[in-house]
Amino acid sequence: MKKTRYLTNDELNRIRNEEDMLKGNINRMCVTDSLKELFSMYDFALKRISTIYNINLEKFLNDSEVDNI
């Protein structure tokens, strides 16, 4: 039987922080009148999504019984 590893409190806090910051990036993209800021917020949003993905990916990679993709 596969044992599920849950995220630690630290990992959950990191994800919540990235989520909050991502929402801020999206909001700034919607109200900015600067093309430079739009590019910057887009870049930061992609980095935040990548961070959330990597935190969750580590959970699977550290599991000895990872399902094959």
Task: Please tell me about this protein's structure.
The protein has 69 residues and is mainly α. 72% of the residues lie in helices and 0% in strands. The chain has helices at residues 9-31, 35-61. The longest helix is centred in the last third of the chain and has 27 residues, at 35-61.
Structural class: mainly alpha
Any idea what the shape is? elongated
Instruction: Please report the total strand number as a whole number.
Output: 0
Q: What low-confidence regions span 5 or more consecutive residues with pLDDT below 50?
A: none
Oligomer: single chain
Kindly state the mean pLDDT as a whole number?
Answer: 90
H/E order of the elements?
Answer: HH
Helix-residue proportion: over 70%
Strand content: under 5%
What separation lies between the terminal Cα atoms? 19 Å
Give the C-alpha Rg: 16 Å
Q: What count of helical segments does DSSP give? A: 2
